[in-house]
Design goal:
Low-confidence stretches: 418-431
CATH superfamily of the largest domain: Glutamyl-tRNA reductase, N-terminal domain
CATH class of the largest domain: Alpha Beta
Oligomer: single chain
Radius of gyration: 28 Å
Pathway: Porphyrin-containing compound metabolism; protoporphyrin-IX biosynthesis; 5-aminolevulinate from L-glutamyl-tRNA(Glu): step 1/2
Subunit structure: Homodimer.
GO biological process, one term: protoporphyrinogen IX biosynthetic process from glutamate
Keywords: NADP, Oxidoreductase, Porphyrin biosynthesis
Order of helices and strands: EHHEEHHEHHHHEHEHEHEHEEHHHH
Catalytic activity: (S)-4-amino-5-oxopentanoate + tRNA(Glu) + NADP(+) = L-glutamyl-tRNA(Glu) + NADPH + H(+)
Largest sheet: 6 strands, parallel
Mean pLDDT: 87
Strand content: 5-15%
Shape: elongated
CATH topology of the largest domain: Beta Polymerase, domain 2
Number of strands: 10
Helix content: 40-55%
Structural class: alpha/beta
Distance between the termini: 23 Å
Strand order of the largest sheet: 7-6-5-8-9-10
Length: about 425
């Protein structure tokens, strides 16, 4: 099996495409099951956030795996595969490992260094574990990606500014409102992970009074209590819109929460930060007089506050070292079946010779037979011990795959290969 990563992000697709690709939390298990049911896909993890949708997979062939995953994403989104292809990036083999580590470190985020992606990756990995769509390869990749992300944040200052998509959106709002949000009234629509991050960020920014509304009033109550905000029933949304300066939308609704008519009824100037995918603000509301709408597309076009080059370079160095380490593990894991096949062949030879010996020497007692058998097995184990330990070490080094091939050739071992005949060398797409 080889690693393949396919996705679309703010770099390659606008919000209209991302919201069609977006996978609600409740839909992830079914999509994972559809992916691993494909002929070339053996394992799968799906990451779906406000600005990216990615599939990490273990595939038996590049072209087959690429076609299988693209077809599933096309069916899910309703976007023809030929059209969808123009929005996707593809990473294969080593490039897929590097991409996953850059994502977990925040290097590929809209706001470089944001730490929220770590939680999102952890949730994606947990979902795959629950439906058993992650096997040995993706278990190792996800665990290492999470570790690399934590290391990057702990050992560098890439996240020292505490930047996130929310802070980037608030920067835009602050510019529009004269540079200072202190004392500005705000409403957060949605009490999920993004809603909670929005409430925390707004509170630190000195915004207030701060109101929270959500379809489940209990969740809004709990979040409001934690931050000293005010929970309001969703039925009072129209009324609250007439009282606030800033609205942050972060729900999981599949339909717009803020329609053009609703915003018109507010009858006042508003800054609306739409951080949801699919969008919470109806597209036809854009351009309403007095209403500034900032969505993922707007943020992608106005990215700012990136860490210093020295910080990103330090993280890139961590990623490079960790990619080499992972590839070393991978090469070692790939030779394991060959070593196992060699030991099995040795045991078969010993057993065959024992049968021949016993047929020639029927006078041997059971104890004598057992002594001879143990002696032969010990000799074989001692002869194989040093070479198999050494070949594992050599296999972990660059170019180590040649040692497994040599063993198979020298001892005529029949070891099923992990890759399909159409596998190709490393492929790296747009990132």
């Amino acid at each position: 099996m080889n690693l393949l990563s396919i996705g679309a992000s703010y770099r390659t697709a606008d919000v209209a495409v991302l919201e069609r690709l977006a996978i609600p939390e409740s839909g992830v298990p079914e999509l994972l099951q559809r992916l691993v049911a494909q002929p070339y896909v053996g394992e799968a993890v799906v990451v779906s956030t406000c600005n990216r949708v990615e599939v990490y997979a273990a595939v038996s062939g590049f072209h087959g795996g690429l076609g299988d995953i693209c077809n599933v994403l096309s069916e899910h989104s309703g976007i023809p595969a030929s059209e969808l292809a123009g929005h996707l990036y593809v990473h294969y083999g080593e490039a897929a490992v590097r991409h996953s580590f850059r994502v977990s470190s925040g290097l590929d985020s809209m706001v470089v260094g944001e730490a929220q992606i770590l939680g999102q990756l952890r949730d994606a990995y947990h979902s795959a574990t629950e439906v058993d769509s992650a096997g040995r390869l993706l278990h190792e990749l996800m665990q290492q990606a999470l570790r690399v992300g934590k290391r990057a944040h702990a050992e560098t200052g890439i996240d020292k500014a505490g930047q996130s998509v929310v802070t980037a959106a608030l920067d835009v709002a602050a510019e529009h409102l004269g540079g200072d949000l202190t004392g500005r009234s705000a409403l957060v629509v949605g009490a999920g992970a993004m809603g909670a991050l929005s409430v925390a960020t707004l509170t630190r920014s000195g915004v207030g009074p701060l109101r929270i509304t959500n379809r489940s009033h209990e969740r809004a109550d709990r979040l409001a209590e934690a931050y000293g905000a005010i929970a309001v029933p969703i039925e009072q949304l129209d009324e609250v819109l007439r009282e606030v300066d800033i609205v942050v939308c972060a729900t999981a609704s599949t339909e717009p929460v803020l329609t053009r008519a609703r915003l018109e009824r507010a009858g006042k100037e508003l800054v609306v930060l739409d951080l949801a995918v699919p969008r919470d603000v109806a597209p036809d509301a854009v351009g309403l007089p007095g209403v500034l709408i900032v969505d993922i597309d707007s943020l992608a076009n106005s990215r700012r506050s990136n860490p210093a080059a020295a910080e990103t370079a330090a993280v890139e160095q961590i990623v490079a070292v960790e990619v080499d380490n992972f590839l070393g593990w991978l090469r070692g894991a790939e030779i394991a079946p060959t070593v196992a096949a060699l030991r099995t062949r040795a045991e078969e030879v010993v057993s065959a010779e024992m049968r021949k010996l016993m047929s020639r020497r029927p006078e041997f007692t059971e104890e004598q037979r057992a002594d001879v058998s143990r002696t032969l097995h010990r000799v074989v184990q001692q002869l194989l011990h040093s070479p198999t330990v050494r070949v594992r070490q050599l296999a972990a080094e660059p170019g180590g795959d040649q040692y497994a091939a040599l063993l198979r050739e020298l001892f005529d071992l029949d070891v099923p290969l992990a890759t399909h005949a159409d596998a190709v060398p490393e492929i790296g797409g747009r990132s």
